[in-house]
Design a protein that fits this description.
CATH class of the domain at 6-101: Mainly Beta
Strand content: 35-45%
Distance between the termini: 107 Å
Structural class: mainly beta
Number of strands: 14
CATH topology of the domain at 6-101: Phage tail proteins - horseshoe like beta roll fold
Number of helices: 4
Biased composition (Polar residues): 229-250
CATH superfamily of the domain at 6-101: Baseplate protein-like domain - beta roll fold
Strand order of the largest sheet: 2-1-5-6-7-4-3
Order of helices and strands: EEHEEEEEEHEHEHEEEE
Protein name: Late control gene D protein (GPD)
CATH architecture of the domain at 6-101: Roll
Shape: globular
Region (Disordered): 210-257
Helix content: 10-25%
Organism: Breoghania corrubedonensis
Length: 257
């Protein structure tokens, strides 16, 4: 089925926005982040006539994307942080910027603790439960034993990211869940994600970069200058045969004739 009718749904503080919201929407951008970085959203509107009502700072934005007749995907819940108002010959515009609501302040508070003979899944469940979140860990990671893990003045985000790096995983907090996902596994459940093919005809515009792999070149050999002994004459770099007493006898400090 061709995806020819994209749409976006937005709720502000749990209430659906008016039809005028969509009529004036110029651009919507959502960035998905991992680890300590928060997801973000930017919504730009045509503010001709200054008719756009700016949501209060701290308002919750629930965003969903999809295609009519194909499906809808919940992108996330965001907190409005700032509004940017600009204008010029091209018109007047307002941009609302928000950050992922899951990156709460308590997740950034430092704490010291240690875990002994615990599983990786057990550590994530402990962290998640402390912050009122659900834990989802890839099956391949959940049962891995962690003999000893120390957290010293680290936030839950810092510690979770460090643990993930140690086991080659991705750590994130999204949708009320603390996630630890094996790289390349597709999802926390371990089930591969369904392949999605996007044709050029589905896009208003598109771009991708193709970069060649770096080529290694042999390093040139450097000549080594001969070292000098204390007398100032060059010292040979070859091994000289050892002299014997019979070939160069010494008599009372003088060379014997």
């Amino acid at each position: 089925m061709a995806r020819t009718h994209p749409f976006i749904e937005v709720h502000v503080d749990g209430q659906p926005v008016s039809a005028g919201f969509y009529q004036r929407l110029v651009e919507a951008t959502v960035r998905d982040a991992t680890g300590q970085d928060a997801d973000s959203v930017e919504l730009t509107f045509d503010d001709a006539g200054n008719a756009i009502r700016i949501p209060r700072e701290g308002a919750e934005l629930s965003v969903r994307f999809g295609f009519r007749g194909t499906g809808v995907w919940v992108v996330g819940l965001f907190i409005v942080e700032k509004s940017t108002i600009e204008g010029g010959p091209g018109g007047e515009f307002i941009t609302l910027s928000g950050r992922g609501a899951d990156m709460r302040k308590d997740l950034k508070e430092p704490l010291s603790e240690h875990f002994d003979d615990e599983t990786l899944g057990g550590i994530i469940r402990t962290l998640a439960g402390r912050h009122g979140l659900k834990a989802e860990v890839s099956p391949d990671l959940a049962s891995l034993k962690v003999p000893h893990a120390v957290r010293v003045d680290q936030s839950a985000l810092d510690f979770g990211t460090r643990i993930a790096d140690r086991f080659g995983a991705l750590f994130s907090v999204k949708g009320g869940k603390m996630l630890l996902v094996k790289r390349g596994s597709g999802s926390a459940s371990g089930q591969p994600l369904t392949a999605l093919t996007i044709a050029k005809s589905d896009c208003v515009s598109w771009r991708f970069d193709v970069e060649p792999r770096p080529r290694s070149t042999p390093a040139p050999a450097r000549p080594t200058a001969p070292t000098r002994n204390t007398s100032g004459s060059p010292a040979s770099t070859r091994n000289s045969p050892a002299r014997t007493a019979s070939s160069s006898p010494i008599c009372n400090g003088r060379r014997c004739g």
